[in-house]
Design brief:
By secondary structure, the protein is of the alpha+beta class. The protein has one domain (about 5-25, about 35-69). About 15% of the residues lie in helices and about 30% in strands. It has one helix at about 55-60, and strands spanning about 5-10, 15-20, 35-40, 65-69. The protein has a 4-stranded mixed beta sheet, with helices on one face.
């Protein structure tokens, strides 16, 4: 599974780190969105939890990009 590490800074100066995955065949399932941002909100970091692994994999199968943070 290939992904890109991404980061952004919020308006109040907080740096957020995450990952982005793009599907190999975008839009194959005809979903009404091109991508989703998955935010666990449990503190810590995005890579120590497997909370969204299966959901992100399914989104990719459907041709939907996903960002997790």
């Amino acid at each position: 599974m290939l992904f890109e590490l991404v980061q952004m800074t919020t308006r109040d100066g907080v740096r957020l780190d995450g990952s982005f995955q793009a599907p190999t065949a975008p839009g194959v399932a005809g979903l009404p969105v091109d991508g989703l941002c998955l935010v666990h909100g449990t503190g810590g970091n995005f890579y120590s939890s497997t909370l969204f692994d299966s959901l992100a994999a399914r989104l990719l199968e459907l041709g939907c990009a996903g960002a997790a943070g």
